[in-house]
Amino acid sequence: MPSISDCKCVLVIGSTSGIGRSLALAILDLPSQPTVIVCGRRKERLDELVASHNATGRLKSVTLDVLLERNALKSSIEEIVNTYPDLDAVLFSSGIQRAFDFTRPDTIDLDSLECELATNYTSIVRMITFFLPHLIKLGEQGRPTFLYPVSSGLSIYPAAGVPDYCATKSALHSLSISLAVQLKKKNVHVVEIIPPLVESELHGFQGTTQGLSRFWLTLEEYTKETMEGLVRGDPYVPAGTAVDRYKKFEGGKLEAAARLYGQS
């Protein structure tokens, strides 16, 4: 299977911090020397990232809010594709996590819950839909192209304290399997990245960083393990504790989905 080492131009959505930022810089360091486009809402962070890591001139930036209205999001993605016609891989790392206690339904902030759903799932479905015409065209020309959705080990084994987050990641996990099967013949490779609990700003909003830091995989360790899987061209890339969870509960699902779709 082709791998990320075959990519000429990789867009990393959600790369102003955490997993997205770390993977973007690791991809930039690949011997294949791809162009890497860091992408997010916070322009000042993107500017800092490019200023401090662009000795090669291969690091670019694009400001994008994934929660833009549908037509505005489509226009933004068309502009990205027109600016970077060599774009052959998109990594979706944007995400938020909120705690909800359904034993106290009066405390559930539905605006916050629906924002989490839109950020972690709906916006990604929209963006995939808008990027696909370009990626399919390249694929049909003989160039392998890639979609890299970032789900979570919690898509497999949920944590009850963050129920909506787990549900959004489960939806993305299921979608990734289906798209991997559908798009295979189009030379568009869907590779799901499945992190465990990883050192991240994601947990700061809830004040859980201090407690979780005793258990999480450091960002450096996580990035090294994940990049090894991406370079190998693995069809899915769990890391840390997510490896055993995937093997126990998800092993064989991709192949079963392919058989159900009529693919051997």
TrEMBL record:
GO terms for molecular function: oxidoreductase activity. PROSITE patterns: ADH_SHORT (PS00061). Keywords: NADP, Oxidoreductase. Pfam families: adh_short. InterPro entries: NAD(P)-bd_dom_sf, Sc_DH/Rdtase_CS, SDR_fam. SUPFAM superfamilies: NAD(P)-binding Rossmann-fold domains. Belongs to the short-chain dehydrogenases/reductases (SDR) family. PANTHER family: 5-KETO-D-GLUCONATE 5-REDUCTASE (PTHR43669), SHORT-CHAIN DEHYDROGENASE_OXIDOREDUCTASE (PTHR43669:SF11). This is NAD(P)-binding protein.
